[in-house]
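Ornithine cyclodeaminase (Shewanella sediminis), 318 aa
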Amino acid sequence: MLVIDAEQIHQTLNFPKLISALKETFSKPAGMPQRQVFSLDESSSHSDAFAVLPSWNEQTIAVKAFTYFPNNPSKSSDLESLYSKIMIFDRKTGIPQALVDGTSVTYWRTAAISALGSDFLAREDATKLLVCGTGRLASFMALAHASVRPITEIQIWGRNPKSALKIVDIVKTNRPELDVQVCDNLESAVRNADIISCATGSPSPLFDGDWVQEGTHTDFVGNHNHDRRECDTKLILKSDVYVDSKINVFAEAGEILIPVAEGLYDTNEVKGELSQLCDHRLKGRTDDKQITLFKTVGTALADLVGAQIAFAEINQSK
C-alpha cells in the first residue's frame, strides 16, 4: 500500500486534469452517504470535531477522516486546525491501495469543485474575479476559477491586508500574466466582479447582497455550520441557487438554513446539485442577466477523485 504525502499531491494534481475528472465522475452513478460530523464537545456547536466521509465509484472505494481543532494555532505555531487522511481501496477486490494526505487533497478538490460550478454557472465572458479570504485555500480558489474562465483581473479581499498580499504573491507566481491586486474597497469590488468566490471563517455575511449585480456568479465554501453564513438572505432570494450535495448542504449550511428558519426560503427552491449539472439534467446558466449562487460544504466523492488521480500517477511511475 502506498503512502502519499502532501508534496506528492501538489506535484501530481493540476486544475484542468482534476476539474475534468470531477466532471466525469459526478456525471456517473456513485455511492456517497451523508458525511458524518461529530462534535467532540456537546456543549458547543463550534467545538473540536471529527468527521468521516465515505464514497465509491466503479474503480475506487474511499473514506476520508478528518479532525478540526479550531484553537490549535493559538496553542502552538506548529499545530494546524485541520488534519485529514484518505484511504482508498480497489473497488473490484477491496485491496487497500493507498493512504493519502487528505489536507492537501481538500485544498485542491474544494477549489476544483467551485471552479466546476463556475464552468456551468458563470458567464462565458467572465474576466473579473473577487476572492474573499486569505487562508491557505484562497490561492487555490483564485487559480482554479482562472482555469475555467478568461480571467484577467483578480482582487483578493481579507481583513488583514498583509495576508491578502501574500495570496496576491502566490497567485502572481503561478499566473504572472494576470492582474492580481489586494482589494481595498469591498463594495466596489463586489459591484464590479463577474465571479465572487468566498472561503472565509466568517460567522456572518461578508457583504450586502444588494451589491451583487446582474450576471454575477457567487460561490461560498467557507462555512459548514447551520447557524453561520458567508452571504445574506437577500442574495439567496435574488439568486438561482445550486449546491454540491443537497444531503450535506441541507444538514450544515447556514447560507440556506438561516433563510429557511426565517420563513423566507424553502429548500425546494434550490435549483439543483452538481451531479445534475454534470450529467446535463440541468443546464445551469441560461442567460447573461442571471445571478447564480453555488454553495458547497465538501463531498467525499471529490476527495476520492483527487486521491484516485494521485495514486494512479504515482503507482504508474514506480
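Residues 162 and 182 are 9 Å apart (CA to CA). Residues 2-105+301-317 form a domain with the ornithine cyclodeaminase, domain 1 fold (CATH 3.30.1780.10). ok done for today
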